[in-house]
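User: Could you walk me through two proteins back to back? I'd like the raw sequence and the C-alpha cells for each, with a short line separating them so I can tell where one ends and the next begins.

Assistant: Of course. Protein one, sequence then structure:
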Amino acid sequence: MMELVDKFLEYIKVEKKYSEHTIKSYQKDLGDFLGFLLETEGHQNTEKADKKIIRNFLVEMSTSGLSKRSMNRKLSTLRSYYSFLLKIGELQISPMETVNSLKFYAEKQIPFSEEEMNLLGNLEREMDVLSRAIIETLYQTGMRRAELCGLLIRNVNFTENLLRVKGKGNKERQIPMGESLKNILQEYLQSRQPLPEFSEYFFVSAEGKKLNEKFVYSKVNNYLSLISSKKKKSPHMLRHSFATHLLNNGADISVVKEILGHASLASTQVYTDASIEQLKKVINQAHPRAIKKDDL
C-alpha cells in the first residue's frame, strides 16, 4: 500500500540519510512498480507481490525497451524496499529472495585524454567565470555533480586549500584543492551574487539560485562536445578522467579511493582498466621481483 511506500521513503530520508537525488530515484522506481501492480493485478498492495509478479515486472520492463542497467537499478530499489518490510514485520519472506540481478557487459567508458583536457583548458579563456569554475572543479577534484551543486561556501577553505564535500549517505570527506583551482574559485567568488535564500551555496546561477544538476550537465556536455567526439560527455566523465589521470601519473589507488569517496576499493578499481599499460610499467620498473633486461 502507499502508506508502506511512504514509510520506506521516510526511512531512507531520516534514518539512512540518503540524498534527495537518491530518494527521488527510489520514489520513481517504486511508483513504476505500483503502476504495474495496478495494471496487472488490480491493486497496489506491494506486500502481496510474489516472485512471479516480480518476474512479470521484469518482462514488462524488458518489453518496454528498458536497459539492463536500469532494470537492475529498479530491482535494487525493490530489494531495499522489501528488506524494509521484513525489518518492520510486514513480511516474513521477501519476494526478491531468489530474484537475481541481470548479467550484462557494461559499455566501457573511455576517459578524456590529458591532451583533450588541455584543449578544454585552452577554451576556458572564452568561457564565463561560472562555467570555467564548474568544469575545473569537477576535473580537478573528481567530485560528483550533486556534490558540486550542494557544496557549501563554509566548506571551501582557501587557507588550508581544502574542500569539504558531502557525498552519498551524507558522508563527508575532504578533497585537496590545488593552486590552479584555488585561483579559479577565488575569481568566481568575486562575481558570485546569490539571492539571500541561496547564500549558503558556493555555486549559484546568474540569477543567484542554487545550481541544478541539469544545468551543470548541459554546461559540461556543451563544452566537451567542442573538443571531443567521444560518446559520453557528462560530468561523470570528468570524474572518470580525474581518477584515470591521477593513476596514470602514479597516484596510490587507496588515496584516489578516499578522494572519490568510494566505500570500497573495488569501486575505484574500475578506473584502472584504462590505465593497465601504465600499471604494467609501474610493476615492471618498481617491483623487486620484476624481470629486468639487464638480468637476462
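----
Protein two, same layout:
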Amino acid sequence: MQSTLHPAGPEATEVALLWWVMFGASVFIMGLVVGLIAWGLTRATGRERFAGMPMIVGLGIVFPVVVITPLIVWSVDITSRVRAAITPAVTVEVVGRQFWWEVRYPGHGIVTANEIRVPVGQPVELVLTTADVIHSLWFPEIAGKLDMIPGRANRMVIQADRAGTFRGQCAEFCGIQHALMALVLVAEPPDAFEDWATAQSQPPPPPEDPFLVWGRDAFLAAGCGTCHAVRGTPAKGTFGPDLSHVGSRVTLGAGVLPNGIGPLAGWIADSQAIKPGNHIPAFNTLDGETLRAVAAWLESLK
C-alpha cells in the first residue's frame, strides 16, 4: 500500500491530519458556493443586484482570507517542525541512480541497495544525494518527499511508529524506468535491527556446497564483479548494486521482482526484457544449469 492516509510515522500523521482538515474545508466551501449559486439563480431579482455587494466582499474576500490564512500558517508550522534538527539514532546515506537506490549505513559499515531498514520508534536521518539526474525519495506512509539534486546533499529525519514493510518510490521523473524505481523500507524492533546490522556488516561466508561454489565461480568468470561487489570475493565493482547480502533483500531490480532463485535467474538472463533501459546487460549466453547455480549462490548470500 502507498497511501498518505494510512500514516505510520509522525510526519506522515501530521500530513494526513492537515489533508483531512483541508479536505473538510474544501467540501464545506464547495457546498457553500454551490448553495449560493442556486440561491442566486432561483431567488435573486434585479432590485437585489447592488444589494449583493456586501455579500461579494464578505464571502469573496473576507471569508477566504479568514479560512485559508490559518491553513497556510498551520502547513508552514508543520514543515518547520518535521524538518527541525533532531539527533538521529541511525544515519543512512541514500544515493539515487538510474534506476535503483544505493543505501549506505556509515556507522555500521553496510552497503546495500533498494532497501532501507530502520528501528521502530527511533529517528533516522536520511542523507540524500544523486549520482546522475534529479530523483526524489518518498515513502507515503512514513514521511513527505524530498528531492535528490546533483551536487547537493539534502537531509530529512524519518521515524516509523510501527513495524512493517513500506513501499517507497522515486517521485521525480528521472528517465525511461522512473515508474519502476521503487524501494522498500523495513521497520523492525531495535533488537532485530541491530541483529540485521551486525550480520550485514560482515562478509558472507564462503560456500561449501559444490553447486554454490560452481555458481560463485561462474559469477566471477562471467565478469559480473566488474560492476558488482561481493565482499569476501574478488568482485569489487561499484557501478551496480552491492550484492554481498542480496539474498536477504525483499525485492530485486528496485521493486520489480520478488526475491528468489527463479526471479534471480530471470533477471540475470535478460533483465532488459523485465526492465527495459536499465544498465545491466543480458547474460543469455549462460546455459540453464550454470544460470541456476549463479542464482542459487546469490540467493544464499544472506
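The two ends are 26 Å apart (CA to CA).

Let me know if you want the two compared in more detail.
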